[in-house]
């Protein structure tokens, strides 16, 4: 008996060794590069240089927060309306929502240039209607639009999958006890769909705050995000690895802090439901 | 209300597909531009074959996706079996933490930290070129593993432990019991894990970008192409990919609906 379970525990060993080498050690390596100079001597110079990237950090967080908020506001009704449909159309719409996720996101982002460019589809249409053209590309709005567009399926799907599991009899009970549609939404559906909302927020915020492609293509040179800074520095050769590691380390810690705050918030919500 | 909700859903879907429609339309452009449409032509589709960088990238992507998904599925299934059997609290929480890290970390952090590891060891080993096929494969296996593990573990929890013991009592060796009893009961989870790993690997840009060196996968090739002016051939290739996935999904959906109908009618007969 003991021998058997020892054997089955042992099969986890290759994975644990793999994860130690390729998950834990790289993070240690990142910290090592962040706190050393080119010769390998300890230094705080890289960390202290981070002040120069204050603006990139601030802009990244601001854009990511706005994009996440917009995505949530758009996705929540979408998920709700989906649950109200026939089961067969629900499945069809699920597939339609998921399909773009299999497409290369670089191309999907790049296509927006065709739509937003100064001589792009929107402006050509405006011109032919005799209307003034708009400056759309290379603006903060375009970057946020790109984030919302690229990551919206990651918000719709978790909210939808949590919502479909809500027991219909709970809603009927609420209705019988005299609550109207609005208070059913606020007091039954909203709290019960919270886990989906939280994982949606995480799945949109993390890639948004760390992106570098969207900002390069849709934001031009003015909207430099922290991901751009990291990519640029790593691309500039081994001399810049140390500063780039310091930036990555700070980004990682920042994201983990955000996630910790959020999971705290979500467990409070769930606690509220139980009480 | 019903009309409103229909319009809302339709608008969101239109938003999701607007850039894809643009991509498909401009893949048939006879000119070089991806935003000024001249006339209809399919020349870019024939040009793909002669675009060696793109074909090479596609080959690299498929190689890495198949290998990494397979290796991650084997390692991850074994890991899931082992992790559910773990009893010591410390090893268990270590296992969950290392499984969660790649999923929670931003791709860019995973990518650069792996790159630093490879570069560091490359320097120690005195390699001229430390990044390439092996490193991008390792990176893909690493970010695929958690998804395999997390799709197998729930299936393992659902299976009846007595079955395994019954097999042992009836004379199976532990290995036979594992392959004849445990594997069949978790095969759905293993399959889901493999498919997830494969698609994630196919689609990955950020982590490959930092770890692939000269072994460029298709997304990295596309990235380098979009740094210069993009010609419609990139759109043509993406349209082919889109059409393939679209057909596969429709077929899958049809098969699923059919098997459900059959099951329902069987239930009724019974």
Task: Describe the protein's architecture and organization.
- The complex is a heterodimer of chains A (about 280) and B (about 270).
- Chain A is mainly alpha-helical and about 280 residues long.
- Chain A is about 75% helix and about 0% strand.
- Chain A starts with a helix and ends with a helix.
- Chain B folds into 2 domains: about 1-40 and about 235-260, no CATH class; about 60-225, MetI-like (MetI-like fold), CATH 1.10.3720.
- Chain B is globular.
- In chain B, about 40% of the residues are buried.
- The chains are: A mainly alpha (about 280), B mainly alpha (about 270).
- Chains A and B meet through helix 1, helix 2, helix 4, helix 5 and helix 6 of A and helix 1, helix 3, helix 4, helix 5 and helix 6 of B.
Task: Label this structure with key terms.
heterodimer, A: 275 residues, mainly alpha, MetI-like fold, 13 helices, 77% helix, 0% strand, B: mainly alpha, 2 domains
């Amino acid at each position: 008996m003991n021998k058997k379970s020892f054997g089955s525990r042992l099969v986890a060993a290759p994975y644990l060794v793999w994860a130690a080498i390729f998950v834990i050690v790289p993070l240690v390596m990142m910290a090592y590069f962040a706190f050393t100079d080119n010769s390998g001597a300890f230094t705080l110079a890289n960390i202290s240089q981070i002040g120069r990237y204050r603006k990139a950090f601030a802009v990244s967080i601001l854009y990511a927060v706005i994009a996440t908020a917009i995505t949530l506001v758009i996705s929540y009704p979408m998920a709700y309306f989906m649950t109200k449909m026939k089961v067969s159309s629900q499945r069809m719409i699920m597939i339609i929502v998921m399909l773009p996720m299999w497409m290369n996101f670089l191309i999907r982002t790049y296509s927006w240039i065709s739509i937003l460019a100064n001589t792009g589809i929107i402006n050509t249409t405006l011109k032919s209607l005799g209307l003034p053209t708009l400056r759309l590309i290379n603006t903060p709005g375009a970057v946020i639009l790109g984030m919302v567009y690229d990551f919206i399926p990651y918000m719709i799907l978790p909210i939808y999958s949590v919502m479909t599991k809500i027991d219909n009899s709970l809603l009927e009970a609420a209705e019988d006890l005299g609550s109207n549609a609005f208070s059913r939404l606020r007091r039954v559906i909203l709290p019960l769909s919270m886990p989906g909302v939280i994982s949606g927020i995480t799945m949109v915020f993390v890639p948004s705050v760390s992106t570098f492609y969207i900002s390069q293509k849709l934001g031009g040179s003015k909207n430099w995000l922290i991901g751009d800074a990291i990519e640029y520095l790593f691309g500039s050769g081994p001399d810049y690895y140390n500063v780039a590691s310091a930036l990555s380390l700070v980004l990682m810690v920042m994201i983990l802090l955000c996630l910790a705050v959020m999971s705290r918030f979500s467990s409070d919500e769930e606690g509220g439901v139980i009480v | 209300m019903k009309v409103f909700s229909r319009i809302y859903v339709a608008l969101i879907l239109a938003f999701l597909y607007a850039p894809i429609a643009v991509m498909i339309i401009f893949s048939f452009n006879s000119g070089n531009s991806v935003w000024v449409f001249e006339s209809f032509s399919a020349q870019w589709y024939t040009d793909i074959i002669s675009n060696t960088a793109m074909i090479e990238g596609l080959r690299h992507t498929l190689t890495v996706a198949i290998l990494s998904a397979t290796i991650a599925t084997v390692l991850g299934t074994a890991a899931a079996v082992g992790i559910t059997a773990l009893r010591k609290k410390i090893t268990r929480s270590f296992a969950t933490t290392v499984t969660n890290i790649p999923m929670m970390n931003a791709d860019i952090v995973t990518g650069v930290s792996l790159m630093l590891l490879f570069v560091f060891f490359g320097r120690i080993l005195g390699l001229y070129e430390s990044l390439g096929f092996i490193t991008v494969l390792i990176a893909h296996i690493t970010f695929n593993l958690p998804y395999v593990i997390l799709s197998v573990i729930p299936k393992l929890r659902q299976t009846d432990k007595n079955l395994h013991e019954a097999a042992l009592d009836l004379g199976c060796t532990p290995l036979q019991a594992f392959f004849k009893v445990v594997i069949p009961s978790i095969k759905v989870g293993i399959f889901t894990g493999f498919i997830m790993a494969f698609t994630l690997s196919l689609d990955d840009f950020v982590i490959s970008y930092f770890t692939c060196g000269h072994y460029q996968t298709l997304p990295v090739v596309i990235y380098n192409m979009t740094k210069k002016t993009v010609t419609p051939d990139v759109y043509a290739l993406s349209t082919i990919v889109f059409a393939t996935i679209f057909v596969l999904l429709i077929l899958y959906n049809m098969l699923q609906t059919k098997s459900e109908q059959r099951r329902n009618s069987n239930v009724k007969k019974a």
